[in-house]
């Protein structure tokens, strides 16, 4: 399926983070996402920086850079408490992983996406009821290939801002056996909310305040 970055715009967005245990929710931090268009070695690219601040979950920042025309991965860098934890640099041959005290090269066959770019890809897909899509992914923090399965479940009314509710596509996404749900504004293509079950009766949710 051919995808285009035309629907994307440079943005900055803040979401609150909630832990929901058996229906009872507790705010545990916030996350900021910045999207901007950059040039990397002469190539038009998209940079997505996601910063997570939480006393419960820790402080992390992930920087994902992908080609603007193909969404092919260029690099991913993960910072934990301000220090670089892992950096992945992609090429036609595979991916080079640099850790704190080691590095390695991993060969990838075929077309791959960086798993941390999926939240960008969902915004440019022609979402509609019943849409199903499978992609080959690579997770740099796990240093492993991941099968990605995407399915549009339904349309729901989701909070976009204060007293502002809009129609959004609820998208079921498997990363291997890990399930995430995303809600994408059907008009503006904004990512409004995401949710995942991280334990028995325990849900982690990112959403607008």
Tell me what the structure shows.
It is globular and about 45 Å long. A 15-stranded mixed beta sheet has the order 8-7-6-5-4-3-2-1-15-14-13-12-11-10-9. The chain has 209 residues and is mostly beta strands. The longest helix has 7 residues. The model has no long low-confidence stretch (mean pLDDT 93).
Briefly characterize the structure.
The protein is mainly β and 209 residues long. It has one helix spanning 118-124; strands at residues 11-21, 24-40, 43-54, 58-67, 73-80, 83-90, 94-99, 103-107, 113-114, 132-139, 144-161, 164-175, 178-185, 191-199, 202-207.
Biggest sheet record: 15 strands, mixed
Instruction: Provide mean pLDDT, rounded.
Output: 93
Which parts are unreliable, with pLDDT below 50 for 5 consecutive residues or more?
Answer: none
The Cα radius of gyration reads: 17 Å
Shape: globular
Q: Which H/E pattern describes the elements?
A: EEEEEEEEEHEEEEEE
Tally of extended strands? 15
The neighbouring-strand order within the major sheet is: 8-7-6-5-4-3-2-1-15-14-13-12-11-10-9
Helix percentage range: under 10%
Give the structural class.
mainly beta
Q: How much strand content do the residues show?
A: over 45%
Helix count equals 1
Question: What kind of oligomer do you see?
Answer: single chain
- Give the termini separation: 34 Å
């Amino acid at each position: 399926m051919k995808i285009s970055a035309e629907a994307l715009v440079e943005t900055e967005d803040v979401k609150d983070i909630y832990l929901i245990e058996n229906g009872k929710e507790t705010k545990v931090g916030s996350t900021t996402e910045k999207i901007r268009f950059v040039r990397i070695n002469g190539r038009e690219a998209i940079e997505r920086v996601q910063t997570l601040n939480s006393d419960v979950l820790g402080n992390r920042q992930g920087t994902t850079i992908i080609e603007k025309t193909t969404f092919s991965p260029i690099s991913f860098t993960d910072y934990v408490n301000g220090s670089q934890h892992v950096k992945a640099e992609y090429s036609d041959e595979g991916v080079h992983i640099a850790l704190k005290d080691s590095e390695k090269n991993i060969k990838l066959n075929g077309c791959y996406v960086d798993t941390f770019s999926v939240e960008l890809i969902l915004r440019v897909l022609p979402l509609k009821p019943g849409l199903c899509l499978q992609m080959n992914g690579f997770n740099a923090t796990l240093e492993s290939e991941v099968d990605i399965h995407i399915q549009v479940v339904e349309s729901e009314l989701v909070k976009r801002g204060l007293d502002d509710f809009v129609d959004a596509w609820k998208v079921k996404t498997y990363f291997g056996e890990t399930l995430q749900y995303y809600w994408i504004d059907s008009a503006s293509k904004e990512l409004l909310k995401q949710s995942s079950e991280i334990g028995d009766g325990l849900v982690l949710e990112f959403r607008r305040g």
